[in-house]
Amino acid sequence: MIVAAGKRLIYLWAIVSVVCCVFSACADPAKLPTVSAKFVSANRSDAVKFDLEVCSNDRERALGLMYRRSLPEFSGMLFVFPVEQQHSFWMKNTYIPLDMVFLDSDMKVVGILENVPPLTEAPRSVRKPSQFVVELGAGITRKHGVTEGARMEVEGVVPAGQ
Fold it and tell me: What Å distances lie between residue 114 and 14, 21, 68, 142, CA to CA?
């Protein structure tokens, strides 16, 4: 009886430890590098700056904004890939509806997905090659005039995609 209870406690401790590790890794944006960026287009001169966390390797990209419950208006996430190709995203374990901005290797916007619903595994893509993808809160691209053809200008160093 005591041995069985001890095994259950060890099992429970192991589950709690794994869950805590997952949530702390996902919820701690301080572990990711950041850059400031703005989207500039020919017909707008009032581009706003966004503070973007940068995900440049497979583990970081897979985690993305999962498990987060909020995202400030002028914040987001920049996904950096090693090569320009068609990329697809899902919203598994992502609680925040998002706008996704796909950019080519020159950081020109090649497509935007607006108000992508949370908590789905449906693949989302603009079906065009991209090397960078920026996730912002839903409605932000429309509110701040981010459009296809705009260019993203970055302050800071963007790590190479791995």
Answer: 39, 31, 19, 8
Q: Summarize pLDDT for 17-70 with one digit per residue, the tens.
A: 333 334 444 445 558 999 999 999 877 667 899 999 999 999 999 999 999 999
Q: Alpha-carbon distance 34 to 158, whole Å?
A: 8
Cβ atoms of 126 and 68 within 8 Å: the answer is no
The model's pLDDT over 60-104, given as tens digits with 9 standing for 90+, comes to 999 999 999 999 999 999 999 999 999 999 999 999 999 999 999
What is the pTM assigned to this prediction?
0.81
Query: Taking the CA atoms of the chain, what radius of gyration do you get in angstroms?
Result: 18
Instruction: Domain 32-155: give its CATH architecture.
Output: Sandwich (2.60)
> Within 10 Å of residue 88's Cβ, how many Cβ atoms?
11
**CA atoms of 105 and 40, how far apart (whole Å):** 16
Q: Which residues contact 152 (CB under 8 A, 6 or more apart)?
A: 37, 38, 39, 40, 101, 103, 107, 108, 109, 132, 134
